[in-house]
Amino acid sequence: MDRARRRLxxxxxxxxxxxxxxxxxxxxxxxxxxxxxxxxxxxxLKPNIEQADALLEQLINLESHCHDVLxxxxxxxxxxxxxxxxxxxxxxxxxxxFLLLKEDKGYLESWAHxxxxxxxxxxxxxxxxxxxxxxxxxxxSLHTAEKILKTVSEDKTHSASAGxxxxxxxxxxxxxxxxxxxxxxxxxxxxxxDTQITExxxxxxxxxxxxxxxxxxxxxxxx
Length: 223
Description:
The protein is mainly α. It is built from 13 helices and no strands. The protein is elongated.
């Protein structure tokens, strides 16, 4: 492989890690990380690999928090939706849950609007949205949901509705994972903020105009 092709290979690996982080998909991240680690450039790409690996860990943790919610039967959700005037704990819990799922806070003040969201089926259902949740939450929405849940008693929520209690548990675990998890967007030395190969990539790449590629020999341990 000549110098130009080695350079292109490096840049493609770096771009692959960028795109994987932008897309926040478990299998795409796994593939991009493995390809980078198996390449001769794993040491140079270490900051990018570490960021992608941290996001992958976060996604796995988020998936683990879904279990109880995904076990909720549709009849339980229907019971929640059929509340004419729900206890405060139920309304606030569902408000926080839907905030994390990118619903507009202004509409969530209305229980009738939340009822409509709970009645949705298929890909638009609350269960489907939680199953597909990837932790991509606006900081303002995350803060508001966290603030709401701090005013809610888990015990009172459970007493009012076992279904609402499952959503309470999911929401609090999600917030904790995003707040305390190892993945933080744009905090690595080689922060990834776009999906295009830029001039900076060429400057940062392990090549210059006169030398061959720097073929790293250090072993990068993913685990």
